[in-house]
Amino acid sequence: MDGAANGEDLISTLPDDVLHEFLLRLPSADAAAQTSLLSRRWRYVWAHMPEVQFSYPVDLHRVRLALTAYAAPVLRRLHIITCDANPEAMTTILRLAAPRLSGSLFFHNEESLDPDEEEDEEEWRVYYDDEEGMDGAIAREIASVKLPCFEKAKNIYLCLGFLYLGLPQSGVFAQLISLHLHHLWFGGDCDLGKMVSSAQCPLLQFLHVYQADGLTNLAIHSKSLLQIVLGDVAMQQLIVEAPMLTVLDVRRCFVGQQPKANIFAPLLEILYWIDLYNPATVQLTMKKDLRKLRTYSIMVYGGAPLDKHNLDSARLLKFFEAITTLDLFLQYPSDMIDMQYLMGMITKLPKTENLSLELSTEGHRPHDFGPCVFYLLTMATGIRSLSMKLVIDNDERTVCSWDCICHQPQGWETEHISLDSLEEVEIFGLLRAKHEFVFVKRLLGWAANLKKITLNFAPSVVVTDEERQKLLGLASRPETCIKINFSKGYGGGVHQ
To answer: What are the helix and strand counts (H, E) for the chain?
Structure first.
């Protein structure tokens, strides 16, 4: 207190590691560097910080100057967010950081969009014609972000804003545990499979690649990988040899072409294969019983070529014998005219304890899901829990007409199935539709040992007291707890 009264700078007398803790709480490296104006003592404190962060879109020239002035021998964390970056500038930053980084790299390049243009989710992907081919497209490559070898880094996250990426041909990422690559193009000489395999990444456990093009073939041979996630990665062939792998997530990577894959993962526990599947071209060497499985979307109604989705899903479901949690995405088309019921293509479900269903409607009509769900339940009579999520992509909902094909096939309302193992049910997104009430009533009749059912209404739905009492009165057994969640209507909140 006396020192402060005399104008003495007591903070500057603190050890550097304590001052670093102060600076780490500032929003960016720029702010930390500005503390050098306080006194000569602070001039170089920021340059020895274990972490350097640029949290807002920043000019990479300033990042380069900061890293050039950085004096500490080891950098624990580098966090950079920029916009419309130049590939050469990004390469320079990576080369400056590589020798010293011993922890995590987060480098996110945002791609600015013209506000007058609407970007379609799939427009980023380019399909090459026969004349040009992949080689012709690569020949147009002007510049790429060159990734050097980070020998000491543990985590790398790169989002390039669809710039080209060049991978190192040599060197070992000796400490790398996780690698995330997003929104990029792989250059013609890139071999991602080689880089992430055991020879170059001996400790790699987590590999995530999203929205990437230019791979064609991906062959991974790793003794350490535990999790592989590939989303919207355009390729023709996938090979995975990973004896320790427990999670494999492949989404929309073979769109528009016959899938070719060979997966060796004897310890796999979770498989998300949201893609085409043909047992003649996709070889799966793994256990027949998994902890969790999700397949490609299943069309409830439709016609060619939509029925191809169901065929692929049916093939994959037949491959497995037992799944602890089976996660299915069921889709209703926006136009139901001249559509056919396609659920009959699914003829077998693996033995399942927990069944999770997401039912999505492309339009504004909440279709009757009773026939579809009843059909699936006839093949899953041993389930212990059922979760259903109802999704409609339009807020302007209208009542489905009485002659809509979604009510077909009929008869399920009077049939009985025994769901004696079913103990818990939860339904999300209810809209007060008549068919929803009918389904809940029938479900309570099928599940003789049901302990709890939770009904969650959509936020925009108004639930009256009469409707609430009607739902609560459906329980024929005192042991069954009915819980109703809603935000509008009589009382709001939770009732049970």
So the answer is: 11, 25
Per-residue pLDDT, 464 = 86
Give residue-wise pLDDT tens across range 361-375. 876 567 778 899 999
The domain boundary, picked from 32, 49, 66, lies at 49
**Which residue type is seen at 352?**
T
Phi, psi of 3 (to 5 degrees): -65, -40
* pLDDT confidence of residue 223: 98
pLDDT at residue 176 tops 90: yes
pLDDT digits (tens, 9 = 90+) for 375-414: 999 999 999 999 999 987 655 556 676 667 676 777 787 8
How far is it, in rounded angstroms, from Cα 442 to Cα 474? 10
Q: Are the beta carbons of 264 and 241 closer than 8 angstroms? A: yes
Say which residues have a Cβ less than 8 Å from residue 421's Cβ, sequence separation at least 6.
381, 382, 383, 384, 449
**Domains of the chain: total:** 2
Which residues, 6+ apart, have CB-to-CB distance to 117 below 8 Å?
Answer: none
**How far apart are the C-alpha atoms of 66 and 495, rounded to whole Å?**
58
End position of a domain, from candidates 9, 30, 49: 49
Rounded-to-10 torsion of CA 218, 231, 342, 433? 170
Residue 31: which domain range?
1-49
Q: Say if residues 459 and 493 touch (Cβ distance below 8 Å).
A: no
| DSSP, residue by residue, 139-177 | HT---EEE----SS-SEEEEEEEEEEEE--SS---TT--
Res 133 pLDDT > 60: no
Residue type, 236: Q
- Phi and psi of 200, rounded to 5°? -100, -25
Residue 25 belongs to a domain: yes
Token pair of 416 as six digits: 């009985």
Distances (CA, A) of 164 to 78, 90, 183, 213, 288: 21, 11, 9, 9, 39
Residues contacting residue 152 through CB under 8 Å, at least 6 positions apart: 74, 101, 102, 174, 175
Is 192's pLDDT higher than 90?
A: yes
Instruction: Pick the closest to residue 248 from 204, 208, 218 (CA basis).
Output: 208
Domain assignment of residue 463, yes or no: yes
What mean pLDDT is predicted for residues 430-455? 91
Check: CB of residue 265 under 8 Å from CB of residue 239.
no
Quote the pTM value. 0.84
Note whether residue 423 is domain-resident: yes
Residue pair 145/91 in contact (Cβ under 8 Å)? The answer is yes
- Find the mean pLDDT for residues 67-71: 76
Asked if residue 348 is part of any domain, the answer here is yes
Which residue type occupies 344? G
Q: In angstroms, rounded to a whole number, what is the distance separating the alpha carbons of residues 479 and 224? A: 48
Report CA-CA distances (Å) from 154 to 102, 137, 205, 380, 465.
Answer: 7, 33, 10, 43, 56
